[in-house]
Amino acid sequence: MSTLGSRNKRLVGEALSELSKTLNFRLVDGLAERVIFREFYPRGLTAIDDVSQLALGSRPTMSHVTARLEMERLMTAIMLGHLVARPPESSDASRDAA
Questions:
Q1: What is the pTM of this model?
Q2: How far apart (Å, rounded) are the C-alpha atoms in residues 37 and 74?
Q3: Model confidence pLDDT, tens digit, residues 43-70
């Protein structure tokens, strides 16, 4: 569903919540419609790939970061979070060295 709030979105969300109780499934936040996803696929990339300036042709933006975080949350929610390999952050490395 879109990130914009609307009466229809609220009603669909409520209906899915009730249906999940009846059919025994759980709801998780999914993916928003993002232009960045459409930019990745023609390059053979996904939002969980470690993107670099070389792969993108430009520096990664906040859209790239947001899309990756959204994918990580979704994959963790459906218990596939172990498949998302995060590159080590410099703060982690310095903390581990201390």
A1: 0.59
A2: 15
A3: 888 888 877 766 667 777 888 888 888 8
Tell how far CA 30 is from the center of its chain. Answer: 8
Q: How far, in Å, CA of 88 to CA of 47, rounded?
A: 17
**Residue-wise burial string across 47-62, b where 16 or more C-beta atoms lie within 10 A, e elsewhere:** bbeebeeeeeeeebee
Task: Report CA torsion sign: 23, 28, 34, 36.
Answer: negative
* Alpha carbon distance 39, 86 (integer Å): 21
Mean pLDDT in residue range 72-96:
66
53 within 8 A of 17, measured Cβ to Cβ: no
Spatial distance between the Cα atoms of 14 and 83, rounded to a whole number of angstroms? 31
Question: Distance (Å, rounded) from C-alpha 63 to C-alpha 26?
Answer: 28
Angle at 61 between CA 67 and CA 91, to 5 degrees: 85
